[in-house]
Amino acid sequence: PGIGKAVADWMTHGKTEHDFFGIDISRFYPIQKSREVVESRCYEIAQKVYTPAVHPREPFATGRQLRVGPFYPREVELGGYFMEVAGWERAHGYQSNEATLMEKYRDQVPVREHEWDSRHFWEVSNAEHLELSESVGMINLSHFAVYDVSGPDAESLIEYLAVAKVGDNTPVGRGIYTHFLDHEGGIRADLTIVRLAKDGYRIICGGDTGHRDFVWIMNMAVARKAKIRIDGQTESIATLGLWGPEARSTLAGLMGQPEDISQENFPFATAKQIDVQGIPVWAFRISYVGEQGWELYVPFPYG
Fold it and tell me: Under CATH, which number does the domain 237-302 receive?
């Protein structure tokens, strides 16, 4: 009856009374919906559901390496411990960091004494988080879903969708962390919007929700008859998070004009093009580790 109610709501109202994101087909990217991927993953899930001894964090064996960025070969060399999200291979720590960082932070990393509790949990991941908080580190964020929205109705549509003000006097290059809401005021999406031009925006979504957010934008554009264009950039732009107290000094050491990223010239929540050793980088000053940092976007060939 629960599924029946959800389907009836979707068919009659285009929405559901409760949050059914877990069974919303729009959460899947096109590459995840091939017959081969669906059949193999369904077979594996059935085995996991009806085999109690399977660990809840056990990585999937099927539907792997559907999406990898240019940094992936290097991550493999570093001994990345990979899990999958939205078809992307995403490292949850690196074996190469274990010797130095575990020695440095051993007394701060909790010990999971029981094998079941420690399985598919990599202590080095905790140590890497601590290093980000105290020094600097890089995180591969290429799984972020990136969409550029442009056109004569781009501003009015994004203004309608977002909770925060993103139009009017919002300057080009300003980034805004905000939400999309549904028709009843519930949170539909959690994302970042950067104004690229008077009639252009870059929307940066989490990898696991990116396609669902894309479908929502398209549906709202159709409903409002908005004249817009959406260009997906996820498969053409590689993303790194450079975060930590030493992020600025690290990045400045790679630039011919380090003053370009000073606090005065590059304040928080702004984005602009910079040059890093001859590589064109679109840099967005934002961080999710409680310290300074940037998201660095480069065309795949430079990755």
Answer: 3.30.1360.120
